[in-house]
Amino acid sequence: MKLRVATLNDIDVIQALRIEMLKEVAEKLPDNLPNTIREYLNTHMKDGSCLCVLMENEGSIIGKAMLCIYTVMPDEINVTGKCATLFSVYTIPKYRGHGYMKQLLCYLLEKAKEAEVNEVFAAAEKKAVPLYQRIGFTFKDNEMSIRL
């Protein structure tokens, strides 16, 4: 297995894996979703606000994880305000259950540190929560959101 940071040349495979992942959790996807994913990746991978890492096995991409990097108001814990949200964590089904996702997430978090990200936020399916906790994620029970 090989871990690496994705480049613009990987956009097709990242887009395809993102669509595969979303098909596992949604009944129907919007028709324009592949195009909007491609546009997002083109823009944000170029400017560094999207960090994607890939796991390869014999030349094929078998997993990915992404961080959307942004800056918020600095506070007493994060004096630079540089944060990221974890998105699109996915392993191809036949490669699940072998510990690859832990390797992928740890690699991504190391790359985030190199990019001077101070805090990473995540939401995970229940089955993935123990893995996230093993690598250091904790719950904040006052976090909430609203979809507009």
Describe the structure.
With 148 residues, this protein is an alpha+beta fold. 34% of the residues lie in helices and 25% in strands. The protein has helices spanning 11-25, 33-47, 100-114, 129-134, and strands spanning 2-5, 50-57, 60-71, 82-91, 119-121. A five-stranded mixed beta sheet has the order 1-2-3-4-5, with helices on both faces. Helix 1 packs across helix 2. The longest helix has 15 residues, at 11-25. The model has no long low-confidence stretch (mean pLDDT 93).
What profile does the largest beta sheet have?
5 strands, mixed
The proportion of strand residues reads 25-35%
Shape descriptor reads: globular
Nearest-integer average pLDDT: 93
User: Considering DSSP H and I runs of 4 or more, what fraction of the residues is helical?
Assistant: 25-40%
Classify the secondary structure makeup into a structural class: alpha+beta
Helix tally equals 4
Total number of beta strands: 5
- Low-confidence parts, pLDDT < 50 over ≥5 residues? none
- Based on CA atoms alone, the radius of gyration comes out at 15 Å
User: Order of SSEs, N→C?
Assistant: EHHEEEHEH
How far the N terminus sits from the C terminus, by CA atoms, comes to: 40 Å
Strand order of the largest sheet: 1-2-3-4-5
